[in-house]
Amino acid sequence: MMGSENDQEESKEKMESLFLREESDPLTRSDKSNSNSTYRSAMSTLSDSRHPSIVVTPADSDPLFAPPSYFNESRSKPNGGNRDSSSYLEPPSYADVIFSPFDDNSEINGSDDGGSRHIQSSDSLSRSPSSLSSDYFKITVSSPQKEQESTNSMIPGGTTYVTYQITTRTNLSEYGGSEFSVRRRFRDVVTLADRLAESYRGFCIPPRPDKSVVESQVMQKQEFVEQRRVALEKYLRRLASHPVIRNSDELKVFLQAQGKLPLATSTDVASRMLDGAVKLPKQLFSEASSSVEVVQPARGGRDFLRLFKELRQSVSNDWGGPKPAVVEEDKEFLEKKEKMYDLEQQIINASQQAESLVKAQQDMGETMGELGLAFIKLTKFENEEAVFNSQRARANDMKNLATSAVKASRFYRELNSQTVKHLDTLHDYLGLMMAVQGAFADRSSALLTVQTLLSEISSLEGRAEKLEAASLKVFGGDKSRIKKIEELKETIKVTEDSKNVAIREYEQIKENNWCEVERLDRERRADFLNMMKGFVVNQVGYAEKIANVWTKVAEDTSQYNRESS
Amino acid sequence: MESTEQPRSISGSMQSPRSPSLQPYLSVSVTDPVKLGNGVQAYISYRVITKTNLPEYQGPEKIVIRRYSDFVWLRDRLFEKYKGIFIPPLPEKSAVEKFRFSAEFIEMRRAALDIFVNRIALHPELQHSEDLRTFLQADEETMDRFRFQETGIFKKPADLMQMFRDVQSKVSDAVLGKEKPVEETTAAYEKLKHYIFELENHLAEAQKHAYRLVKRHRELGQSLLDFGKAVKLLGACEGEPTGKAFSDLGTKSELLSIKLQKEAQQVLMNFEEPLKDYVRYVQSIKATIAERGTAFKQHCELAETTKLKEINLDKLMLTRSDKVGEAEIEYREIKAESEEATRRFERIVTRMEEEIVRFQEQKTEEMGVAFHQFAKGQARLACSIADAWKSLLPKLEASSAV
């Protein structure tokens, strides 16, 4: 790797420019969504050329990447003249090609293919088992564009919004083609997320990107759009990797249907407020679709009567009212919930410390580079001003140190960008923990529905009993009361049906919960182990490279060894 | 009043093993910093141990107690007496109050003072200095007395003299009607001055980054520690095998944190400090350059004055004035002064020529050692990082296979 200096200038430049390009590879999992942490900003400075139209930092402005023309004893200026920094090259998969930690003086027992397996797994972070291995389902989000809202008669000059191109490449049979594209706006994504939440209660559905109104006003439009693009891509990819949701109609329609998204929008649903007042009684009076609607959680806009009843129920539960017949007795569930909460806290903590670690590595690399640069200047100076041979010798020693410091600095930078990818897993799981919370919440709300219906039934039955008792006292039958009793009994029957549906729903959600949590635990175990392996392999690889650099310097300066050891 | 005889070369702390008792040697060490006094008056004292077989010294071994201002006294005296020689630099007076008594600062200062005295003891001219002998041998009361004589309102007598001379030269400039500054203009000397001034800037920058690098080591060490702890806590939440893997990872991380802190200390002592010393040395050379400038000015001015006096004398002699006698005495006095000034100046020039050679060689050696140690330290650190992480891999492999 370290050939003669003049040859290696060229290849060093190439390596550097490759490295710079690699950071804009959309395949890499750097993410700017979600939190506003310094990790994010550390990562965004690392991968600052994500957006293809942003020119990669020209080498001229970064003195660290100035080709070592100092080392030519020529008088040329330190700025790399012939560097073509303006064109955007298609990035190779840098990590796979260049980084092979088992190259130089490896002491690891043999496993070269073990090494590449590591790299494979650390780079793609794929899990080995399951049906995912032969399936191909890749989603890309690109080319954000401004579009005009078709003018509303009320609003002069329509508002603009941004659409993104969503390209899917897949070999799954459920999808008609192998590659197709649609244009969607963020509102469509919100719709998708909402519909999925309704259809897949009890599942750990990956959380969608935030609306983040504040951010959109604070950030530059371009930055914000780019951040959102990345977030959307990540979200859709997560959906695609969920074994159940990837096959959902909602997702299919979102990815394939051209033109307007054919899913009921949340605003449509919410606008039927007035309907809500009528809904519950209808639900109680054998309307065909009523039981199905019972199955949905009460939603603010339409079901406010039901919401009211459920609220009353939950308060009654909390205040130790008459114990409902079905209670969350599942100790296992409660324990699991507790554990999940703890886990989430620890993941947050670990994620924060990972951020600090990344920052510290970055700083180390930077300062090492600056040190190298300072010594390069010194070397040049001494050489120019040399009067004595001792000066030339010293200049030579300095040059050695300087070039090695710069090399080491580059290794630190590379180490760090890889570290970021691995430790990003922690951050991903924060999002997934939110999904778990959602799943548990679905369960709780379904249970609440059941409890509400049960107590509704028991209060209706109470009323019926009273009426019956009263009507018996009237000789010859009480026509009006009897009629009322009959109506009540009808109501009770319908409510019973609803209750049965609700119980079935609740059981189904419990089942979903259980499956999902199992799946998540399994996947998390694999992902975390992969993460650790990747992280460790990465550290080993770069530590060895850095060690080699400095060992050589130590050898070259061995005449100055004054220790007895 | 130094002897003009060829000085014996005295070997210092690294004497030749051949005939230790016959070879003249003088070795000094500065050790055992101890805090004395209370409150604002508190200071650090050091034991200075001298081992020698030189007749000028009292006995083969002598131990005295000295404080920082005693070292300053020695440096100032040498600077006064040995113009032209690059007097070895002292570590700075303390910066921040709270830092003054930190273990790190004390140790760094002690090491620097040790180097300071040893350099003097090894220098072919300086090692014969009477002031050095006083410093190494006088009892504490005598030393205190010497020290108080020198320090007054003006901390450095050299500063006082300098100001006096400046005034003097300004006056004579006015008298002689000169306005431009009198400076040597030889190309070689110009080059040297330019070199020294530029060198200081470059070195200062390198030293700044070296110091930052020490900080980075510490910061990385701290973040590894925190990361290790966090990961262990995370492992406690997870079941097997992830839990154990996290626990192992965390432990390794904590271990490496310690190694990083150690290396930080090494980089500070063996790399950053030598660079700082280099900067100080260059500053000392700048002081010598200033001295040379002053001496040159004196030499020029006195030469001028002498010439004028000579012209005056000749005039008086022609006119057979009765002031001739007076004038002749004045002339002779000025001439003697002028010759003395010229001698002083030339001695400085000669000394500096030798000193520059010594300085460059010494610095190449010292920097070489510093670089070597730095590289070794970094290599060692990187190797132990690689080894530590590597040892985790088989366990992680095993866990994944489950």
From TrEMBL, chain A:
For bias type Basic and acidic residues, the affected ranges are 9-32
- Parts forming coiled coils: 450-512
Using the UniProt annotation, give all residue ranges assigned to the region (Disordered): 1-132
SMART domains, per database record? PX
Pfam families (alphabetical): PX, Vps5
- Point to the regions of Polar residues compositional bias: 33-47, 71-88
Q: What InterPro entries does the entry give?
A: AH/BAR_dom_sf, PX_dom, PX_dom_sf, SNX2A/B, Vps5_C
Q: Which residues form the PX domain?
A: 142-261
Q: Biased-composition ranges for Low complexity?
A: 121-132
**Keywords linked to the UniProt accession:** Coiled coil
Record protein name field: Sorting nexin 2B
Gene name? LOC104734727
TrEMBL record, chain B:
Check the record and name the PROSITE patterns matching this protein: PX
Question: Where in this protein does the record put region Disordered?
Answer: 1-23
Span of domain PX = 24-143
Which one Pfam family would you cite for this protein? Vps5
Matches recorded under InterPro entries? AH/BAR_dom_sf, PX_dom, PX_dom_sf, Vps5_C
Protein name as catalogued = Sorting nexin 1
Q: Which organism is it from?
A: Camelina sativa (False flax)
